[in-house]
Amino acid sequence: MDSLRLRLWSENDLELLHAANTPAMTAHLNGPETEEQIVERQARYLRLVASGEARMFVIEDDAGSSLGSIGYWQMVWREEPALETGWFVRPEAQGRRVASRGLALLIDDARAHREDRRFLTAFPGVDNPASNGVCRRNGFALVGTLTEEFRGADLTMNEWALDLTAASDTPAL
User: Fold this and answer.
1) DSSP letter, residue 92
2) If you classify domain 5-119 with CATH, what class do you get?
3) Whole-number Å distance between alpha carbons of 149 and 6
4) Torsion angles phi and psi, residue 53, rounded to 5
5) 150 pLDDT exceeds 90?
6) Around Cβ 33, how many Cβ atoms within 10 Å?
7) 111-123 residue pLDDT tens
8) How crowded is residue 116: how many other Cβ atoms within 10 Å of its Cβ?
9) What is the DSSP pairing of strand 119-122 with strand 141-150?
10) pLDDT at 109 > cutoff 90
11) Where does the pLDDT of residue 1 fall: very low under 50, low under 70, confident under 90, or very high at 90 and above?
12) Which of 46, 71, 119, 145 is 20 to 30 A (C-alpha) from 135?
């Protein structure tokens, strides 16, 4: 299995957002975004990385090929400051534990940059077994389920949390 690294998001990474914006890749997210939304997402990633409010990454292999994206951003969860994470992996890189290994790298980064934020959260759709498995394999605890509007329709998500202050081999909550 090749090794992976996380590289901070850059101006040259718009293509990766386009690659992830297919019906198949967005099936668990209520469908693709418009071109305008993709361009805004790119601008938002760059702005949030520059301000320190988020750390968005490209997941790369040894050859420097982009396999997907992962990141985290500041949010309020259960009335306290927290971080939220999300990811995607290109279809040709799926089935190689890229998301799980990328999340393990991201957890280390989040622990180093968490400031006053204790929890890293993730909200994959309840019908997304792959992303829910990524959370489980990385020590997150399933703490609930919620339904919110996302991309114009209701999306029911599992609510996962990882205590960033706990020892790295200790499950959250």
Assistant:
1) G
2) alpha beta
3) 30
4) -75, -15
5) no
6) 18
7) 999 999 999 999 9
8) 7
9) unpaired
10) yes
11) low
12) 46
- pLDDT above 90 coverage of the chain, percent: 86
User: Quick one: pLDDT band at residue 171, thresholds 50, 70, 90?
Assistant: very low
Q: How far apart are CA 17 and CA 154, in angstroms?
A: 23
Q: What is the b/e burial string over 119-154, where b = at least 16 CB atoms within 10 angstroms of the residue's CB?
A: bbbbbbbeeeeebbebbeebbbeeeeeeeeeeeeee
- 3 state SS of 163: strand
How many Cα atoms within 13 Å fall on the side-chain side of residue 144? 7
Mean pLDDT of the chain: 93
DSSP 23-84: TTTTGGGTSPPPHHHHHHHHHHHHHHHHHTSEEEEEEE-TT--EEEEEEEEEEEETTEEEEE
Report which secondary-structure segment, H or E, holds 145. strand 141-150
Report the half-sphere exposure of 141 (CA within 13 A, side-chain side). Answer: 11
- Single out the residue of 45, 62, 63 nearest to residue 54, CA to CA: 45
Among candidate residues 12, 9, 11, 31, the one with its CA nearest the CA of residue 20 = 31
Q: pLDDT class for 73, splitting at 50, 70, 90? A: very high
Sort strands 153-163 and 119-122 into parallel, antiparallel or unpaired.
antiparallel
Residues forming beta bridges with residue 86, ordered by sequence position: 71
